[in-house]
Design brief:
This protein is mainly alpha-helical. It has one domain: Orthogonal Bundle (Hydantoin permease), CATH 1.10.4160. The protein contains 18 helices and no strands. Helix 2 runs antiparallel to helix 10. The longest helix has about 40 residues, at about 85-120. It starts with 9 loop residues before the first helix and ends with a helix. The mean pLDDT is about 90. This is Sodium-dependent transporter. It is a multi-pass membrane protein. Keywords: Membrane, Transmembrane, Transmembrane helix, Transport. It is found in: Membrane.
């Protein structure tokens, strides 16, 4: 039997779990959603829904993980006392592997743009152009580099790999964001963007489309439903107070998303001030890939030499965010193979990464057909349904007394806590209902 790893410190777990939650969804997705959904109104509803919906589901994953101390298949099998849990666990592994297959491609783009900023500063214009031009060779090469970085970290194990690098990468991410925010706010036009971002249009707050988008963003930004938080929970000591750890992870995740918006929305208005087009034909702010790969690089170009340095810092930030998420995704199938098949960790990591990279190659070679399809299949359909299953297991199938005993290991007074008075019925009735409504509306 393989000995399981365990996080050596509270801060190590918080930064690793936050790193898993903080991905391109926060730094690319959140500002994009703000831009397309009425600015401050979206921010306000996101903040509310992150705690109303995402935190209870996060706690279900952490509790199941720590109680079972197992990979996702065995953990859900134990909680459900049958095959249904094992099937959902296997479904989670398949989903997270597909997510990592397209995520590796996007992470590769971020790395390519990071190198492009350096190469441009050095004056190698031909190479710089190749690095930012969409091509088969560039996509394959940088997807491979991104996967190798992920493999390097995960093969080190829980303490020497995931925890060690999370403790380095997450503070770096915060520092880069704060420095970039400070710089952007000195530029003309930034205050206009700040107003759009911070001042809610209260007439928009109950707009169903805005609510669905905010709910989806809160759910996906914490990487819920696919087992990453369950696995990280299984590496937490029984002596820790889990509800408090969950709050800390949620706050870091939300903080990064809000900070990303504070950086990117004002940067778009700085770009507008510098003559860059930031509105589409429909009058909406440009979003997603257009924003990250067209609007912001155009802005950096208008800044001259300093723009090159800002571009490097920005895409380095994006690369770190992608990497902290990809390591948690790879850990989900790895933990299963290591524990169930008794394969050595190094071998398991390389084997699974090779399979996922092969899937990435398949997507790259059939990009127009598969890229958008895989993203919709996993994030729009599979993830909410997996989140729903987790709520059903935690709320309806797992014995209530077993959950309380698990909570008491880290807090002897858990029975009298505010968390215990609300969470069990909340995750039983409210979360499933909200997820079903969100899923139905998204169809």
């Amino acid at each position: 039997m393989t000995t399981r790893g365990e996080f050596s410190s509270r801060i190590g777990f918080i930064l690793a779990a936050s790193g898993s939650a903080v991905g391109l969804g926060n730094i690319w997705g959140f500002p994009t959603q703000v831009a397309s959904n009425g600015g401050g109104a979206f921010v306000l509803m996101y903040l509310i829904l992150a705690f109303v919906l995402a935190y209870p589901v996060l706690m279900a994953e952490l509790l199941i993980g720590r109680a079972t101390k197992s990979n996702v298949v065995d953990a859900l099998g134990q909680v459900s006392r049958g095959m249904s849990g094992r099937f959902v666990g296997a479904w989670g592994i398949a989903t997270v592997s597909l997510i990592l297959a397209f995520y590796g491609i996007v992470g590769g783009w971020m790395l390519a743009h990071t190198f492009e900023a350096l190469v441009s500063l050095a004056g190698f214009d031909g190479l710089a152009n190749w690095l930012i031009t969409f091509s088969l060779s560039r996509n394959l090469l940088f997807c491979a580099v991104f996967m190798l970085l992920t493999v390097g970290i995960v093969s080190g194990g829980v303490v020497n790999g995931i925890e060690r690098w999370s403790v380095r990468l997450m503070p770096t991410l915060f520092i880069i964001m704060l420095v970039l925010f400070g710089y952007v706010m000195t530029q003309d036009g930034a205050i206009d963007g700040l107003k759009v971002y911070l001042l809610p249009d209260f007439t928009q707050i109950l707009n169903p489309d805005l609510l669905i988008s905010a709910m989806g963003q809160a759910f996906f930004s914490m990487s819920l439903g696919v087992g990453t938080m369950l696995i990280y929970g299984s590496y937490v000591s029984h002596s820790e107070n889990l509800p408090r750890l969950g709050v800390a992870v949620s706050l870091v995740d939300i903080g990064v998303a809000v900070l990303a918006g504070l950086l990117i929305i004002p940067a778009m208005y700085v770009a507008l001030n510098n003559g860059v087009q930031i509105f589409g034909d429909n009058g909406q702010l440009l979003s997603e890939d257009t924003l990250i790969f067209t609007v912001l690089p155009s802005l950096f170009t208008t800044m001259g030499f300093v723009g090159g340095i800002v571009a490097f810092a920005f895409f380095l930030l994006m690369s770190i965010a992608a990497l902290t998420s990809s390591i948690s995704m790879l850990e989900v199938p790895v933990s299963y193979v290591v524990e169930k098949r008794n394969v050595a960790r190094q071998k398991a990591v390389w084997l699974i990464a090779a399979v996922i990279f092969a899937l990435s190659c398949l997507i790259i070679f059939n990009f127009d057909t598969l890229f958008g399809f895989i993203i919709a299949l996993t994030t729009r359909y599979s993830q909410p349904l997996l989140g729903l299953m987790l709520c059903l297991f935690a709320g309806w199938i797992w014995r209530r007394n077993d959950i309380l005993q698990e909570l008491k290991k880290g807090d002897a007074q858990a029975e009298n806590s505010f968390f215990w008075r609300i969470w069990p019925w909340y995750v039983k009735f409210v979360c499933p209902l909200v997820i079903v409504v969100m899923f139905y509306r998204s169809l």
